[in-house]
Amino acid sequence: MSTFGILLFTVTPGFIIMIAVLVVIIAVFIVLYILGKKAQKKQDEQQAMMQANKQYVTMLVIDKKKLSVTKSGLPQTVINQTPKYLRWQKLPVVKAKVGPQMVTLISDDKIFDSLPLKKEIKAGVSGLYIVDFKGAHGKIAAPEKKQKKGFARLIEKLQEKAGAKPL
Q1: In which band, very low, low, confident or very high, does the pLDDT at 138 lie, cut at 50, 70 and 90?
Q2: Quick one: CA dihedral 56, 113, 108, 93, positive or negative?
Q3: Burial bucket for residue 20 (CB in 10 Å: 0-12, 13-18, 19+)
Q4: How do the domains of the chain map onto residue ranges?
Q5: CA 122 to CA 54: how far, in whole Å?
Q6: What CATH architecture applies to the domain 54-135?
Q7: What is the DSSP track for the chain?
Q8: Tens digit of pLDDT for each residue in 75-110?
């Protein structure tokens, strides 16, 4: 144990270990913050490029499911280009008839639930990716909200009472 005459307390090994762990945790948070900012910037650039390259196509949505990349029916070149650690992750896959051709497309997560089945839509497509859509013939009815179950409903009620934003 060492003592410092100015500080008036002893510096124990446990205190030194606690400070070292705290410094490591702060360093990890700083690195994650920097990497997160870089990833966000890259995602914004890609989103802007997709919005610039989208074309509206009339299509009939036949089926929509969340499938892994290997089982999705996408072209083999797309599957080969997907990193190995992402191949198990499920994608929102839409099977649609575009003109006379059946096509497998990937949908944006935000619009996947609102895509109507067995209806004709005008979809903004960028490559194999559905960015947005409009109803081809009039308005499309909003999908029904799924009923939340037990614990999620309780948390939502508590947040509503507290005035907090829902998750």
Answers
A1: low
A2: negative
A3: exposed
A4: 10-43, 54-135
A5: 12
A6: Beta Barrel (2.40)
A7: -EE-TTT-SEE-HHHHHHHHHHHHHHHHHHHHHHHHHHHHHHHHHHHHHHHHH-EEEEEEEEEEEEEETTTS---HHHHHHS-GGGTTSEEEEEEEEETTEEEEEEEPHHHHTTPPTT-EEEEEEETTEEEEEEESSS--PPPPPPPPPHHHHHHHHHHHHHTPPP-
A8: 888 888 888 888 888 989 999 999 899 999 999 888
Token duo for residue 125: 């497509």
- CA 129 – CA 131 distance, rounded (Å): 6
Name the nearest CA neighbour of 111 among 84, 97, 129, 98: 129
82's tokens: 């997907």
Rounded distance between C-alpha atoms, residue 130 and residue 39, angstroms: 22
More confident residue, 41 or 152: 41
